[in-house]
Amino acid sequence: MNTPKIKVLLVDDDVLLGNSIVEELNKRGYEATYMSTIYGVSDAIKQLLPDILVFDVEIGRENGIKIAEDLFKRNPSLPIIFISSHHEDETKEAGLLAGGVAYIDKPFSPKLLSAHIDRFTRMKKPTSERPEHIIATENIQLDTRNRTFILSDGTIIDLRPMEYAILKKLIDHFDEIVTREEIYRAVWGKDVAYYNEQSLNNYIRRVRLLVEDNDTGMALSMHRNLGYKLGRKQ
Q1: Which of residues 61, 94, 124 is at a domain's end?
Q2: Domain of 158: which CATH number?
């Protein structure tokens, strides 16, 4: 039986950006529809019955947050993700208070938006089973499809390719020592010409900060001459 596609309605007055986002979402298996204006959005929601609404904060001269607040009152079960080049805390707070489930700063990667869409549509349609592309240990989750790091409070962090490879290796071997050689292979595969001690040290440092500075209750410890271990913070 085919799983119904997640329906996404995107509203953004940047036509070039809007079309590129929708094209990428459709490639990723969503059923995405794009609108460049606020006019007709209510009718589109009624006709399309989207699972989630992705809404720009500033659409032409219109305040997207105020418009979205009205849409939320009429469609309280419809998750709204705000996207914007306005990075001020006050604007983000206003968006969340207006009914937004998330606020993503522009520019953003398609996989980060995809991770947010997956998360909030999954919350809307809960299931007893965790999706296959989510692996978890303790208070952290790794989205292997979108390559993002999900914290216990739902915060989604976009990972660089090397960070993702290291973190996945450590989570796959939670509470076990993973040697540097194993991490090398996870990051660079068999292409030993790219092995770089300092580069690996830098990525290990970034992964440690991701784990230890985000209240995960986890710690990444180094075991001299052996390797690294992801485990509970002592």
Answers
A1: 124
A2: 1.10.10.10
- Identify whether the C-beta of residue 74 lies closer than 8 Å to the C-beta of residue 26: no
Q: In angstroms, rounded to a whole number, what is the distance separating the alpha carbons of residues 41 and 232?
A: 47
Where is the domain boundary, 101, 124, 147?
Answer: 124
Q: Where in the sequence is the domain holding 198, given as residue range(s)?
A: 134-232
End-to-end CA distance of the chain: 46
Cα–Cα–Cα angle for 43, 47, 51, rounded to 5 degrees: 105
Per-residue pLDDT of the chain (234 residues; tens, 9 = 90+): 466 889 999 999 999 999 999 999 999 999 999 999 999 999 999 999 999 999 999 988 888 899 988 999 999 999 999 999 999 999 999 999 988 999 999 999 989 999 999 988 876 555 545 677 888 887 788 999 889 998 877 788 999 988 999 999 999 999 999 998 899 888 887 665 666 788 888 989 999 999 998 888 889 999 988 999 999 887
Residue 85 lies in a domain: yes
DSSP line for 182-215: HHHHHHHTT-GGG--HHHHHHHHHHHHHHHHTTT
Amino acid identity, position 70: D
